[in-house]
Amino acid sequence: MTTFFTADLHLGHARVIDHCSRPFANVDEMNDALIKNWHSRVKPTDEVYVLGDFALCPWRRALSFAQSLSGRKHLIAGNHDKPLRRKAEFCAAFETVRDLAEIKVPSLGAYHDEQRIVLCHFAMLTWNKSHHGAWQLHGHSHGSLKDEPNALRLDVGVDVWNFAPVSFEEIRARMTKKTWKPVDHHGAD
Hints:
By secondary structure, the chain is of the alpha/beta class. It has helices at about 15-20, 25-40, 60-70, 80-85, 90, 170-175, and strands at about 5, 45-50, 70-75, 95-100, 100-105, 115-120, 135-140, 155, 165. It has one domain (about 5-175): Purple Acid Phosphatase, chain A, domain 2 (4-Layer Sandwich).
């Protein structure tokens, strides 16, 4: 089993192509590419955390997208997911639906051989256990935030990761090149 993360798919949302300069001729081409890329990486037994803005289309279409994607999916809701969350049928396509999550992923060499990760659609400046090596993964910014080398924070949106989910191992490789420097009283000497 592999753990994957992604955000900001915006399935069914034609205007995101122009807003984010996505390289697709139309929304159907974008949807097809996102789904194909998902299936090229994610197996049915894999865990996938979607950090918001899954789809921007009628809820039944969003439901069909969710049901068609492999893996055990968890939705960390984004600002564009609010209407979809009101539909129990849509939410049932996910193992969990939350606004924020704190998870632990097995990782040899990490504290207690597990990596703590705070998941939210929005980027954070500080988060729980950040001063103890916890990561913060987010979406929302579509790659427009500078990747801060002194923060264990990372944008996992499709616009940053070749329009596909990114694995825990790929994120870990990126995080090993970062350091953590306190931005508040936590960790200060």
